[in-house]
Write a structure and sequence with these properties.
A hairpin with a 2-residue loop joins strand 1 and strand 2. Helix 14 (383-406) packs antiparallel against helix 16. The strands form two sheets. A two-stranded antiparallel ribbon has the order 1-2. A two-stranded antiparallel sheet has the order 3-4. The radius of gyration is 24 Å and the shape is globular. The chain has helices at residues 6-22, 25-30, 35-65, 89-125, 133-152, 171-174, 178-207, 220-251, 276-293, 296-310, 317-330, 346-358, 360-374, 383-406, 408-414, 418-448, 454-480, 494-497, 500-515, 517-530; strands at residues 263-264, 267-268, 450-451, 532-533. It is mostly helical and 596 residues long. Bound molecules: protoporphyrin IX containing FE and copper (II) ion. Protoporphyrin IX containing FE binds at residues 166, 291, 294-295, 337-338, 356, 359-360, 363, 399, 402-403, 405-406, 411, 415, 420, 423-424, 427-428, 431-432.
Length: 596
């Protein structure tokens, strides 16, 4: 079907051996160009930032439940943040802004794309490494200065960025403080890091597939990461440019986003006819596709996990690929649904409403296909499978609230309320984060050669599943009750006071959710040493990564595999086993998954 650069592979192969002998500790484990090492580096780093982002959220929740009460250990914080342990409003703003920024830019995106993408893509397609190993290393090492600079905001005069992860001007331009510059520089750097990754994935997937690995024999995780990388390549530069323009407005006196004659308090600003609304357009032109950057890889991972543990082919493989593409394509024409309230012409608003509603279509196709995959399967309730099932059900809740908000008439009432916070957490925490856990439990044996403990995994799953609904579901109610989305002290408003018990309930659930991650951390770290030795293919799965050792040898495969089947040939009539590895030649080749 396609020309595989066999020569290229052999060269990579030889090079690898030469390296093996020469590489010191630093080149092998720190500045490595091996995609597997970089994938694991991204995994450890992003899990570390997951803890930081989680702490920030806990502090936000403390304030919302018990406004003005001193935080436990709060006295350890500097006076500029929380005198006497009571957080200041400015610090509260920094907390929710940095919580969102850390989770989006330093956890979910780099975990799904950087960690899974790196580790899985070359193994899944039967390549020895990524197309540009050195660029890959740069992509990881750009991540660190970005993260450090973002968090350094907490240490500078004026504190960390407090203008929301959306960084709307004029606020983000006229507010003084180095923290905002730190945030802007960090987002610039992380944008370059993402771009380097995207170029690499696209090239690798197009050029380096093993013989027989046609596009329609690729696992859906690879498809999802391929489409995600296209989104990244097309959308991220827009954010990077917009953020750069805010930085210029702040530092060298340009006026991209500052209108003429802007007066804030006593100060008249130097604006020369810039347009704050332009930023919103640029921001959402990136950030709507970005929400798909945060969910599509999860959809891919979940498809793989569901098929493996249902022992059935994925239902409607091609429909899955087409709907992934449709979601991505539509993602570029719906950004205005974040701006219904910005004074746009209602006809334009209606256009955005219609295009947004269309997204329900491919989303529903995917959901029904996942259910079709489960139907009649021999389901194995592993921890990975539980998280994948949770993804499917919770994504439906998040998708449905999306449809509410997509209706511009409804959105007038719920825009900028806790309803939005409920929506984004159903898709991002109950969605993407569940897919991440599914992926970690599923690929851990391949990454580290040992399996994670199932009992601890189940404890982690149930505590997480129950408490996350305790945290995020009542937020819909708060939103309908009119609680604003970014608010320091809800008890100051008469119309919110009767909702306060809900806020307390949410905060307690959030603490449980935080504690629920401890069994995961123990399991993750403990299994490195004490986990059961996994063997090559502990889940009896079909895809190529399971046909090599766990963890794989530096060049991934002894010889480059030859692919004979689609990735989901479970319970295939062509074999007596209930799975048929992609490499196994039974005399009959099959294209993509056969129907049942
Ligand atoms: C059926 C699919 C979806 C629809 C129809 C939808 C619709 C919407 C709409 C209309 C808004 C703006 C509401 C407002 O601000 O008034 C919104 C906000 C948001 N959505 Fe979705 N959405 C969908 C899926 C997703 C997914 C899959 C994700 C992420 C994984 C996501 C993440 C977000 C985020 C982060 C925001 C809030 C952004 C902000 O203002 O900070 N959405 N969504
Ligand atoms: Cu959107």
């Amino acid at each position: 079907m396609h020309a595989t650069p066999v020569v290229g592979h052999d060269m990579a192969h030889d090079e690898q051996h030469v390296h093996e002998q020469e590489l010191g500790f630093l080149r092998k484990y720190v500045f490595s160009t091996d995609h597997k090492v970089i994938g694991r580096q991204f995994l450890f780093t992003t899990l570390f930032f997951f803890i930081i982002g989680g702490w920030l959220a806990m502090m936000v929740r403390w304030q919302l439940a018990w406004p003005g009460a001193p935080m436990p250990l709060g006295k350890l914080l500097p006076k500029a943040m929380a005198p006497g342990g009571i957080m200041l409003p400015e610090f509260y703003n920094s907390l929710f802004t940095m919580h969102a920024s850390v989770m989006i830019f330093f956890v979910i995106i780099p975990l799904l794309v950087g960690a899974f993408g790196n580790f899985i893509v070359p193994l899944h397609i039967g390549a020895r490494d990524m197309a540009f190993p050195r660029l890959n290393m740069y992509s990881y090492w750009l991540f660190w200065p970005a993260a450090v600079i973002a968090l350094a905001g907490f240490a500078v005069e004026g504190g960390a960025m407090g203008g929301g992860w959306t960084a709307y001007p004029p606020l983000s331009v006229v507010t003084e403080g180095l923290g905002i510059n730190c945030w802007l520089i960090a987002v610039l750097l992380v944008g370059f890091s993402s771009l380097a990754g995207a170029v690499n994935y696209i090239t690798t997937i197009v050029n380096m597939r093993a013989p027989g690995m046609s596009f329609f024999r690729m696992p859906l995780t690879v498809w999802a990461l391929f489409i995600t990388s296209l989104l990244t390549a097309l959308a991220t530069p827009v954010l990077t440019a917009a953020v750069g323009m805010v930085l210029l407005d702040r530092t060298v006196g340009t006026s991209f986003f500052l209108p003429q004659g802007l007066v804030v308090g006593e100060t008249m600003f130097h604006g020369q006819g810039g347009n704050p609304l332009l930023f919103q357009h640029l921001f959402w032109f990136y950030s709507h596709p970005a929400v798909y950057i945060m969910i599509l890889p999860g959809m891919g991972v979940v498809s793989d996990v569901l098929s493996t543990f249902s022992r059935k082919p994925i239902f409607g493989y091609r429909a899955m690929v087409y709907s992934l593409s449709a979601i991505a394509g539509l993602g570029f024409v719906v950004w205005g649904h974040h701006m219904f309230q910005s004074g746009m012409n209602p006809i334009l608003g209606t256009t955005f409403m219609v295009s947004t509603t269309f997204i329900a279509l491919p989303s529903a196709i995917k959901t029904f296909n996942w259910l079709g995959t489960l139907w009649g399967g021999t389901i194995r309730f592993t921890t990975a499978m539980c998280f994948a099932l949770s993804f499917v059900s919770m994504f439906v809740i998040g998708g449905l609230s999306g449809i509410f908000m997509a209706s511009s008439a409804v959105d007038i009432y719920i825009h900028d309320t806790y309803f939005i916070v409920a929506h984004i957490h159903y898709v991002l925490f109950a969605g993407s984060a569940m897919a991440i856990f599914a992926g970690i439990y599923y690929w851990y044996p391949k990454m580290f050669g040992r399996t994670m403990n199932e009992l601890w995994g189940k404890i982690h799953f149930w505590l997480t599943f129950v408490s996350l609904n305790g945290v995020f579901f009542p937020m819909h109610v708060l939103g309908m009750g009119g609680m604003m989305r970014r608010i320091y002290d809800p008890t100051q408003y008469a119309h919110l006071q009767h909702l306060q018990p809900i806020n307390v309930f949410i905060t307690i659930s959030a603490f449980v959710l935080g504690v629920a991650q401890i069994p995961f951390m123990i399991n993750f770290l403990g299994s490195l040493r004490w986990g059961k030795v996994a063997g090559d293919n502990p889940w009896q799965a079909n895809t190529l990564e399971w046909q090599t050792t766990s963890p794989p040898i530096p060049e991934n495969f002894e010889t480059i595999p030859v692919v004979h089947h689609g990735p989901y040939e479970y319970s295939s009539p062509l074999t007596d086993e209930d799975y048929l590895p992609q490499t196994q030649d039974v005399g009959v080749a099959s294209e993509s998954a056969h129907g049942h």
